[in-house]
Amino acid sequence: MTTVAAYAAPAAKAPLERTTIERRAVGESDVLIDIKFAGICHSDIHQAREGWGTAMFPMVPGHEIAGVVSEVGSAVTGFKVGDRVGVGCMVDSCRTCDNCLAGLQQYCTGGGPVWTYNAVGKDGERTYGGYAEKIVVDAGYVVRIPDGLALDVAAPLLCAGITTYSPLKHWNAGPGKKVAVVGLGGLGHMGVKIAHALGAEVTVLSQSLRKKDDGLRLGADDYRATSDPTTFEELKGTFDIILNTVSAPLDFAAYLSLLRTDGAMVNVGIPEEPVRILLSSFFGHRRSVSSSGIGGIPETQEMLDFCAEHGLGAEIELISADRINEAYDRVVSSDVRYRFVIDTATI
Fold it and tell me: Where is the Enoyl reductase (ER) domain positioned along the sequence (predicted)?
């Protein structure tokens, strides 16, 4: 066991505070990672404030982890000391179900994936996330960060990057396809970058035009305000894919009207409250509403390699650990462009 410094929420909705946690000893299949940077995902806030239901406390959030290997177990062959690596939203799964064998560990049917924090591992111990100095993870759930990506801008890719890359690939975003990205935040800004790099024509749908210059700079071909009712009239039947990145209820009927025949609206943001969908919104054009959850380990590595090839890092604001609570409030207020990243050397 190793004692490391970390930032934890001691109770629901309580400010995060500096503390210490225990990391397990490095087993034969494990990798010990010196965490260099940890992104702040809105999911961290939903869980630390129990917006998604009852959680476990104290909680050390953080599932956008970038760091350097400092020790490897005796059976590990894929990593060595000094390697630049990342850890995303999960640190284990059953490994034997059809989904795990297909590299879709995020959809594990053998008890579900073991999340990086706010979960219980197979050993019966609580998992604690990346707002910490170090983490021990089974090597099978660690990915390599290519040299072409700086660690600070790579950290958010372990959630925001794969959460948008996976559905864009699955629904075949590329040349000849029109993609709308709803929301230009931590997820949305990566959705724009990735959809553009895949060759799709990209439109941002945002409440206002406040971030229009940013959206166009990041790769959008068009930027429309959803507060303007003419947007929904002018764009009716336009898109093959709508990637909804916001975690708030929407007028689904209005957004579904923007899809072409056989178009799909894919939701990657998770509202804390129920949403209402009229079935009549689907009829006539074989439209669909779906969802997507992160990506498996092979696809996460594919995403990192793709981002390195195309020079796609997250747009970040680097902060010290003592500003985490301030950052949480600013994320809720949409006051970040576009991802807070903690310099873990300040923990």
Answer: 14-342
Tell me the whole-structure pTM to 2 decimals: 0.95
The reported pLDDT for the residue numbered 249 is 83
The pLDDT of residue 180 is 98
Q: Residue 283 above 80 pLDDT? A: no
Distance CA 8, CA 51 (A): 17
pLDDT, residue 271, reads 79
Extended strands (E) in 117-211: 134-138, 143-144, 178-182, 201-206
The rounded distance, in Å, linking the Cα atoms of 108 and 94 is 7
CB-neighbour burial class of residue 81 (10 A; exposed 0-12, middle 13-18, buried 19+): exposed
Phi-psi region of 115 (alpha: psi -120 to 50; beta: other; left: phi over 0): beta
Residues 200, 220 contacting (CB under 8 angstroms) = no
Residue 321, token pair as written in the block? 């650990």
Domains of the chain in start order, with CATH, are 2-159+295-346 (3.90.180.10), 161-291 (3.40.50.720)
DSSP letters spanning 28-82: TTEEEEEEEEEE--HHHHHHHTTTTS---SSB-----EEEEEEEE-TT--S--TT
Task: Give the span between the Cα atoms of 327 and 167, in whole angstroms.
Answer: 28
Neighbours of 263 (CB within 10 A): 22
Instruction: Report, in this order, helix, strand and coil percent for the chain, each rounded to 5.
Output: 30, 30, 45
Q: Given this model, what pLDDT does residue 304 score?
A: 98
- Interhelix angle 160-170/186-197, rounded to 10 degrees, is 40
Q: Are strands 239-244 and 178-182 parallel, antiparallel or unpaired?
A: parallel
Rounded CA gap, 252 and 308, in Å?
35
Do the strands 339-343 and 316-319 form a parallel or antiparallel pair, or are they unpaired? parallel
> What is the mean predicted confidence (pLDDT) over 171-177?
97
Quote the percentage of the chain above a pLDDT of 70.
100
